[in-house]
Write a structure and sequence with these properties.
Layout lengths: L2 H19 L4 H26 L7 H27 L13
Length: about 100
């Protein structure tokens, strides 16, 4: 495994471990998801550049657009839960109560 592939896979798994182990606040979970999406974007961009494939060139831009939509939806949920529940801690949220 080359160093650049190791860096992107390590960044993805660090975001995944942060999402699974530090689930105290909704904003930290959203930041971990955003870090995972950005590492996927950079990895896909480097992959298309290394292969010199012109037919895969719009794929990183599509992934980046989905990442922006996911971030905006996550921030909207963060604001909605902070207004309705008073805090955005994940331990205080109950799916049966929402």
């Amino acid at each position: 495994m080359r160093a650049i592939q190791f860096a992107f896979s390590a960044a993805f798994f660090l975001g995944l471990s942060g999402l699974s182990f530090h689930r105290t606040h909704l904003l930290s979970a959203l930041l971990c998801l955003e870090g995972m999406m950005l590492s996927l974007f950079i990895g896909l961009s480097v992959w298309t550049l290394q292969l010199s494939a012109a037919n895969f060139s719009p794929a990183p831009l599509i992934l980046l657009a989905f990442s922006a939509c996911e971030a905006s939806a996550g921030l909207a949920l963060l604001v909605a839960t902070a207004r309705s529940h008073g805090s955005a801690h994940l331990k205080t949220l109950n799916l049966l109560r929402c």
